[in-house]
Amino acid sequence: MRHNWWKIVSVILLLYTFTAGFLTPVPDLGNLHQSIRNLYFHVPMWSAMMTLFSVSVFNAVRYLRTPDPRYDLLSSRYAGTGMLFSLLGLVTGMIWARYSWGEFWSNDPKQLGTAIAILIYLAYGVLRNSITDLDKRGRVSAVYNIFAYCILFPTIFILPRMVQSLHPGGQGVEGNPGLGGDNLDPIMARVFFPAMIGWSLLAVWIATLQVRYSVLHEKVLNHDA
Fold first, then answer.
1. Are 165 and 173 in contact (CB under 8 A)?
2. pLDDT tens, residue by residue, 36-66
3. Which of 1, 142, 188, 221 would you label with 173, given CA atoms 20 to 30 Å apart?
4. Residue ranges of the chain with per-residue pLDDT less than 50
5. Distance CA 97, CA 166 (A)
6. How far apart are CA 101 and CA 161, in angstroms?
7. 154: closest CA among 181, 105, 108, 114?
8. Could you give the count of Cα atoms lying within 13 Å of 34 in the half-sphere of its Cβ?
9. Pick from 176, 173, 151: which is nearest to 164 by CA?
10. Does residue 187 contact residue 21 with C-beta atoms inside 8 Å?
């Protein structure tokens, strides 16, 4: 039980997020209306994604320093789960855009940058599967992982703030007021920050299950051989 406390925390925080997220009052800001509740789901998906990609690239660096297969396994599984949450973040963002901006996809710089980042990480998976030599696959994948992680910051966090964007922080427009740090409603903050932690813990939980499954699968293959 003491080793699984963080899983219990994740469940509690997510139950709180879903309950309070749909029942607590929200401010009436601009054209967001009730869709502002998506703040508890869309943004935490990106937080979970960055947590997973950060752990992945950390293990990629560890593998380059010490070529232990476990580091490569951790790096690949955390990256794979990170791609899942990046897609969830994109989908929840598109749904929010439909109700806030009138269409699912408006070629907003943030949307385009996110799509580019996802494609780069999808290429990471293709690259791994195309290399059969385990040591070479680990080294090449680790180097590419570091490259992909570095690309995340300009495509998602920097460039969209340098041009006009419907998202907060874009030049020339005020952007979506739901994400402004200074005007985040105190009641929403009580749900938003627990949601960030809860979704991130769930993401790590899923990644650890992926790692355990891969280890068991490898043991079964070795036993059959």
1. yes
2. 899 999 999 999 999 999 999 999 999 999 9
3. 188
4. 175-181
5. 9
6. 18
7. 114
8. 3
9. 173
10. no
